[in-house]
Amino acid sequence: MSRLDEVECGRVLAFRTPDIQNQERQTDALEKSYRASSALLSKYTLRAPTDGVVLSINSIVGNYVSPQGGYESYSQQMNPVLVLGTPQINLHVRCYIDEILLPRLPAASKVKAQMSIRGSNIKIPLDFVRVQPFVSPKIELSDERQERVDVRVLPVIFKFEKPKNLNLYPGELVDVYIGD
Fold first, then answer.
1. Nearest to residue 126, comparing CAs of 173, 178, 83, 69?
2. Tell me, what's the pLDDT at 8?
3. Beta carbons within 10 angstroms of residue 127's beta carbon
């Protein structure tokens, strides 16, 4: 290297030092801006404590959501914003047995039931899980014209394995036949 190259290199470095310092400051500012934006985004991000499936979202873009949930104007209550569930192989069916039919209900060891899915000819066998031993007023109403609302019912829970070739969803209304 000649003396001229060293001088040119020294002069070039002297002129470039403020540019490098300016770039370093911009990099630091952008890094701090990124961290601030990430912190703000994490404030508005919902995280589930475990893996699961979102069953329902009870809010839309633009709605106000408080820590108690979202305001539902029809019921005038605060509902949860998200309802989460876990993916399951077995699903459960809750049946409400009319109090008039309770004497005809077979013993728990002899209960056999099958479920019919509305709008299809599919019948799925059910396995007895348990009885919730408290008769309460009927609050689950269907669309039948003959349905009485002054009935008391006993909840009985069954389970079944979800068929792979069939779409079934929690909350679906099904018909259950219980025999012995």
1. 178
2. 55
3. 13
Rounded distance between C-alpha atoms, residue 95 and residue 140, angstroms: 10
Q: Which of 90, 94, 65 lies closest to 79, judged by CA?
A: 65
Tokens matching residue 145: 């014209």
Distance of CA 42 to the CA centre of its chain: 20
**pTM score, two decimals?**
0.58
For residue 61, report the phi and psi dihedrals to the nearest 5 degrees: -60, 130
Q: What single-letter DSSP state applies at residue 100?
A: G
DSSP state of 89: S
pLDDT for position 11:
53
- Phi and psi angles of residue 15, each rounded to the nearest 5 degrees, phi first: -75, -30
**Amino acid at residue number 175:** D
**Residue 22 burial by CB count (10 A; 0-12/13-18/19+): exposed, middle or buried?**
exposed
Those residues whose C-beta lies under 8 Å from the C-beta of residue 48, and which sit 6 or more positions away, are 84
| Domain regions of the chain by residue span | 1-45, 53-85, 90-179
d(CA 97, CA 104): 10
**Fold type of domain 90-179:** Elongation Factor Tu (Ef-tu); domain 3 (2.40.30)
- Give the residue ranges of the chain where pLDDT is below 50: 4-5, 13
CA-CA distance, 78 to 91, in Å (whole number)?
28
Residue 65 is predicted with a pLDDT of: 80
